[in-house]
Amino acid sequence: MKKKFLLWATCLLPWLALSQINLGTTVLTNTVVASNLAVPWDMVYGPDGWIWFTELSGKIKRMHPDTYEVQTVFTLPDVALFGFSVGLHSMILHPDFNNNHYLYVHYAYTNTTSKIVRYEYDSVNNTLANATLIMGSIPAGVSHNGSRMVIVDDKLYICLGDTYSTPAVAQNLSSINGKVLRMNLDGSIPDDNPTAGSYVYSFGHRNPQGLCYANGKFYSSEHGTTANDEINIIEPNRNYGWPTVEGVCNTTAEIAFCNANNVAEPIWSWSPSIAPAGIDYYHNSAIPEWDHSLLLVVLKNKELIQLKLNEDDTQVTQQNIYLVNTYGRLRDLLVLPDGRVFICTSNKDYAGTPGATDDRIIELKNPAAMSTHVPDADLTKIYPIPAQGVLNIDSSVKINSVMVTDNVGKVIYAEAFTPQINTSSWATGMYFIQLLDADQKVIDRKKVLIE
């Protein structure tokens, strides 16, 4: 009965199906799917198939991407709210979340310090338990605390700002502020870090607000002062210049500093400042115009930006702007494996002007791509689910090829169709299967769980 009521209510909610974005051959809908939130900061897509997100005041929530049901999972007991926009910031789920249930959060717990804590998700009671300190006593300030976290190859990366009042720490390698840090998942320092005994992966950062990993690269968005906001590719042991260098090296003093200190210049920058925030990589045929692009949301200029990348993913070749002043300040975005994009607003923070239903989560999608399916569900069957070692595909529809992506959108299988796929080498988790015809059009999409 509860499920039927939820579906009925979803159909009647007045904030659904608001408007469209015309990209040329593709028309996107942008739809508010959650409202009355309080400064959502970070969104991640979980191996459990839910969108998890944080709110500044300390709440950890999750939203189902198909029904849009929002659940409050946990409220951190010791979050400190202070300064411009300081409280609970970033969150990341362990890639093997379905087995170990680990979730990492970064938040301020006093007006001068923040920490990274690992929790375990209790799926029976839909809450978090067993807090474990991963890194404590991180200096914090009234602003410029970052942060975003990414897990790659069993290492946790986090970007931290210069805490606003002390920009010189960005060049001080004995400080962890103004840096991108790299650590083992238990908080210890990896033996193969750029500097032995140090968490520092890169330095010279002012206030990085976005971090994502794609194409074997870390892409970061960073606030400048009144000018020179940046998109950077983060490389180990590289100096990104702050506070001596802002943007590219183009003054006499900057050029001298850059030459002497191995400074990495941004691949894109803006002047005057736009306040770039969350960033993610788009690689999906669902929105072909955005394929092979970075997507970025913006606070000050209140817009969504597409940054098309060149063939080797090292430079931006084109910028396109959408949703200008449509939903207010935009804090984060998330690309799902099926090609949908979710955006959250930040209108209840210190600089926002909240509307009656703020803050919100907005879904962008190409309905034509999402609705592609076989006319009869019985024509295509994939089994067993959960799969253990092998996946069978039975279909009376002619299938040309099969593409499988993991929960973060990485293609892990793309082959000509065979009725059986060996999954023994795949990690446990949720996967998305696309069945394609001879023209590479999607015949059907299905989710499968691998155990």
What features would you highlight for this structure?
451 residues, mainly beta, five-stranded antiparallel sheet
Q: Helical region count?
A: 4
Poorly predicted segments:
1-18, 372-377
Quaternary state of the chains: single chain
Mean pLDDT: 90
Structural class: mainly beta
- Using the alpha-carbon principal axes, give the shape: globular
**Could you tell me how far the N terminus lies from the C terminus, measured between alpha carbons in angstroms?**
30 Å
Radius of gyration: 22 Å
Report strand order across the widest sheet: 1-2-25-24-23
Residues in helices, as a percent range: under 10%
Q: Proportion of β residues?
A: 35-45%
Number of strands: 32
Report the biggest beta sheet as strand number plus sense, adding barrel if it closes.
Answer: 5 strands, antiparallel
Give an account of the 3D structure.
This protein is mainly beta and about 450 residues long. It has 4 helices and 32 strands. The protein has helices at about 1-10, 95-100, 250-260, 365-370; strands at about 20, 25-35, 40-45, 50-55, 60-65, 70-75, 90-95, 100-110, 115-120, 125-140, 150, 155-160, 180-185, 200-205, 210-215, 215-220, 230-235, 270, 275-280, 295-300, 305-310, 315-320, 330-335, 340-345, 360-365, 380-385, 390-395, 400-405, 410-415, 420, 430-435, 440-450. The strands form 8 sheets. Strands 1-2-25-24-23 form a 5-stranded antiparallel β-sheet. The protein has a 4-stranded antiparallel β-sheet with strand order 3-4-5-6, with no helix packed on it. Strand 31 (about 430-435) and strand 32 (about 440-450) form a beta hairpin. The chain is globular and about 65 Å long. The protein starts with a helix and ends with a strand.
